[in-house]
Amino acid sequence: xxxxxxxPLICRRAIEWVAVSLPPRCAILLGLIVAGSSxxxxxxxxxxxxxxxxxxxxxxxxxVSVNLGTxxxxxxxxxxxxxxxxxxxxxxxxxRDGDPVWGAFGxxxxxxxRDVDRRLFVGADVDGHGYIFRDTVALLNGTGGxxxxxxxxxxxxxxxxLELRGGWRAQTLSFASEVDxxxxxxxxxxxxxxxxxxxxxxxxxxxxxxxxxxxxxxSVIYGGLPVQVWAQTGKWLSDQLDDVAWGAGVGVALGTRxxxxxxxxxxxxxxxxxxxxxxxxxxxxxxxxxxxxxxxLAAPRADANxxxxxxxxxxxxxxELFIAGDFNQWMPTPMQRDGREWTIHLPLAKGVxxxxxxxxxxxWFVPASVxxxxxxGMGGQVALLVVT
Length: 388
Known about the structure:
The chain has helices spanning 9-20, 28-35; strands at 49-61, 68-81, 85-94, 101-111, 120-135, 140-157, 160-175, 178-193, 197-208, 211-222, 227-236, 244-254, 258-267, 278-288, 301-302, 307-312, 321-325, 333-334, 336-338, 341-346, 351-359, 364-365, 373-375, 381-387.
C-alpha cells in the first residue's frame, strides 16, 4: 500500500511511539477506535425494539512490520426505533492478558419525509459514535468520536432505487497526549435492486487534505428465513490508495427471538482515519428482548392454492388501495373493499415474497398490523409472506 506523504500527526507519533517505546501489542489501540462500532453491527439482523448482543471478535492493526491483534468479548444493548432510528451502547473485556478494555456508544437515524411518494424523496443519514479505551500494559487511556451527516436524493421504480449522496464526516481522537481532529467531504451514488435478494452498488469520492480518493464497491444480501447471508467487496481507485476491501457474513434464526451470526472482513484505509489495512472477525448471538417482533421477523404462511391478504380499512383510509410485490413485478394491483376490510386473493406458487401497499395518492406503506412487517432498509417498510 502506498500511503500519502502527509499522514495525520497523531498517526505518525503513535507509530513512532509504538515502534520505539512500548510493547508491540499497544499498536492495536488506534485500530480499536476506528473499528469499534463497525465490528459490532456487521451482521445487520436487528429488528425494531430492544435487543442484546453477546459476541467475540478480533481487531487487527499493523503499523509496524507484523500483524497485531486484540481479542475481546463484547456485550451490546441496542434499541431500534421505527422509521430507521437506533441507539446502542457496548462494552468489551479482553480475552488475553494485556489486551485493552474498551467501550462504544452511539445513535443514528435515516431521516425521510412522511406521507410522500416513495418514487422520489429527499432524506439524510445522520449518526454519531463515541469511544473510550484503556491499555492495560501501558496504563494509558484514550477517547474518540465520529460524526456523519449524509443527505441524499432517492429515486425509485419497482424493485430498484438510485440514491445520489453527499455530505460530511468527522472524527476526533485523544491518545498518548496527542489530540487529532479531521474531517472529509464525501459524495457519490448508490444503486439498489431487489428485496428478497438485494444487490447494491456504491461509487463515492472522498475528499481530504491529502487529495480526492474514489472508491467503488458492491454487495449482495439474501434476506430469506431462517438464514440471511451477505457478501461485499470494494476497491480504492487511486495511485496513493489502491487497497481491496471484502467482507461476508451469515445469520441463522434460532426460534423466533434469537439469531446466531458470524462475519469477517478486510477493512481498507479510510482517508478520514488513515488506519492501516486490517482483517477483523466476529461471532455472536443477538437476542430480542421484551414482547413484540422477533429478531428475524416471522412471516405468515399459506398454501400454494392461493393467498388472501386482508387489512382493516382503518389502517388504509381512502377510496382506493393497491398492493405490489415480488409476485407482480412491483406493479400496483387494486384491492377490493369488503365491508371494513381491503382484500385481495393471489394465486401464488411456493416461495418467499416481499410486498407493500400503495394509496391512491401514491404513498407506499405497510400497516403495523400486517404480519411479517419489517424495515426495507430505505426508510420504509415491507412485508414478508411465505407460501409453502
